[in-house]
Amino acid sequence: MYTSELTKYPSRADIGQTSRVLVVEDEELIREMLVLALEEEGYAVVTATDGRSAVEYLKNCEPSSGELPFDLVVLDLMLPQINGLDICRLLRHQGNPVPILMLSAKGSETDRVLGLEVGADDYLTKPFSMRELVARCRALLRRQRLSTLPQIPILQYKEVTLYPQECRVLVRSQEVNLSPKEFRLLELFMSYARRVWSREQLLDQVWGPDFVGDSKTVDVHIRWLREKLEQDPSHPEYIVTVRGFGYRFG
Ligand code: CA
Fold it and tell me: Fewer C-beta neighbours within 10 Å, C or N terminus of the chain?
């Protein structure tokens, strides 16, 4: 039996805008339950009842077509005309990276392994609960979002390495604790190595244009930063004073 035991999770927020899901299933009852469950979750669902129309749908939304691509395909294994395994193979052969959740009535290990081998991302054996299905779909969509987030490059100069996404800094292979302002200051310096910054520019970039205070604040933070980075803070090799102008990195 297919039970619809949908529970509302607050996780739609991290998925962002409406995801488009293609459901390929020839059994009407299951197809309808899938559509209900996925629409309930907030996805835009398109259905195909056989292999050939599924391939058509997928072809029609290739990047060149101007149609929005699907974010996920829920694909039954046993289908009229072209089966799920062949569709999967075809998509991967064409270099289409859309996440695929494969469904199968057969519970055998071989089917599961074969499904994953031809490029499915996940596999569910019938009967399954709609709650399980929705959880798997959500996980695949989230994984896809994460993999498309732009990676911010790691910054490195001599023996200082800054990991922007992790907010970590290593100095001579040792982790150092920086305050948020020190971190922003160093990140800015390292992003524009050798560029000379005036105190006002640094205040503007790191403290923001609304900051009311003295440009001495910058000098104080530079001193703290030097104590954490430099082997000899009185002869700095990383944060260098440029007389009459300000500071530069490297
Ligand atoms: Ca089927």
Answer: N
Q: Looking at the predicted structure, is the pLDDT value of residue 222 above 60?
A: yes
pTM of the complete model: 0.56
Residue 61 Cα to ligand 1 middle (Å): 24
Q: Other CB atoms closer than 10 Å to residue 54's CB: what's the count?
A: 27
Tell me which residues have their CB within 5 A of the ion that is ligand 1: 26, 76, 78
Ligand 1 center to residue 71 CA distance, Å? Answer: 22
Q: How far is the CA of 82 from the centre of ligand 1 (A)?
A: 11
Over the stretch 135-193, which tens digit does the pLDDT of each residue have? 999 999 988 777 666 667 889 999 999 988 788 999 999 999 999 999 999 999 999 98
Sequence-ordered alpha helix ranges (H) in the chain: 28-40, 51-60, 84-93, 109-117, 130-148, 180-191, 199-202, 216-229
CA 77 to ligand 1 centroid distance, Å: 6
Domain layout of the chain by residue ranges: 12-147, 155-249
For domain 12-147, the question of CATH label 3.40.50.2300 is answered with: yes
